[in-house]
Amino acid sequence: MSDANRRGFLKAGAVTAAGAAVLATPNVSRAQTTTLRFQSTWPQRDIFHEFAQDFVSRVNAVGGGRLRLELLAAGAVVGAFQLLDAVHSGTLDGGHGVSAYWFGRNRAFSLFGTTPPWFGDANQFLGWFYYGGGQALYGELMHDILRMNVVGFQSGPMPSQPLGWFRNPIERAEQIRGLRYRTVGLATDLFQEMGAAVVALPGGEIVPALERGVIDAAEFNNPSSDRVLGFPDVAKNYYIQSYHQAVESFEILFNRQRFEALPEELRAAIRHCTEAASADMSWKLQDRYSRDLLAMSQTQGVNVRPTPRPILDAQLQAWDRVIARQEADTSSPATGAFFKKVCDSQRDWCRRVGNFSLRYNVSPVVSYNHFFARG
Q: What is the CATH classification number for the domain harbouring 153?
């Protein structure tokens, strides 16, 4: 065989061997699959657990057989309010919830959950988190202040949450006083400021408490969750629009050691899947929430009403007092000073971005009325 022919033969053999290696790679990857236990803080029947599944499905699809998340519902390993500790300790590898659930650990957590309503909507909040310095502040809270062995992402902009479910109609802020009311995060301080006796409960426990009379009124989040959890069976007055939780998104958590042990391409896949799931959720909820709100009012006898303006005004005034008190807290360096640091960052973002949004976007109310509200 000539040298030229020999070189050609060897080159062809190398290509064949490389092709065989490429074909064999998926088998090797499947043999090295990393499986992570990932629990939500939501009942399995709740649309929030479905949103968690949407995120998990994306990760599993792009993991290339190398990474798989195993989704569990709230309570499968730990209760909803124990998720952060379970991920920190490694009892769970990750989870899906909201930052407001860790409010008792540090008040500033609620600024990454039930933030004051200076953001125009939750998409503006996500803009601040990823482009306005919020993610660095979140990391400071999680790692430097609380020493949690956890990494987290914000994902999924929620619409304004309803004032909630009441046995009797309400018209005035004074009627809030004395009510045993369920909420979470900074909204607990807000409603306490308005005179309510606040009870913090995970989603699956709210309706039984309302049915037994343990609480008088409650909010959870949205028409789809509220309907499937059974709120229309125990109360009929549903007040939508509120400033107590006008802006919120989900929090996706991973044990820091498990996350950082993954190859960079899989860590990147997780980050990109939080973004993809966030966008998809914002589209899906438009369909589901609107259908369920109509169904409750048209087939289940629910009186859907906007929250009266005097209550909204009282909420904003109460927010002023709550924010001032939290910023002035000097009980430790990690309380008021850090709380104010986050608030200042959010206010700077909202002055600029909120001003742009209000000046730049045409009113959807005018166009909606033009096309759909004509007799």
A: 3.40.190.170
